[in-house]
Specification:
alpha+beta; three-stranded antiparallel sheet; 3 strands
């Protein structure tokens, strides 16, 4: 059974935002603008996305 994947793209720079938001972006594996990563769709990842929803887009 394949797990659902979720694509996360960094669309706004985290510099100038709260340190906790910067750490969340780093924990998601996003390094630079327009960088896209794939993660398994879990409640933990969803929570991290919700925390920085103003900086990322989700596919």
């Amino acid at each position: 059974m394949s797990e659902k994947k979720i694509r996360i793209k960094l669309v706004k720079s985290p510099s100038g935002s709260k340190p906790s938001h910067r750490k969340t972006v780093k924990a998601l594996g996003l390094r630079r603008l327009n960088h896209t990563v794939e993660h398994v769709d879990t409640p933990q990842i969803r929570g991290m996305i919700f925390h920085v929803k103003h900086l990322v887009s989700v596919e």
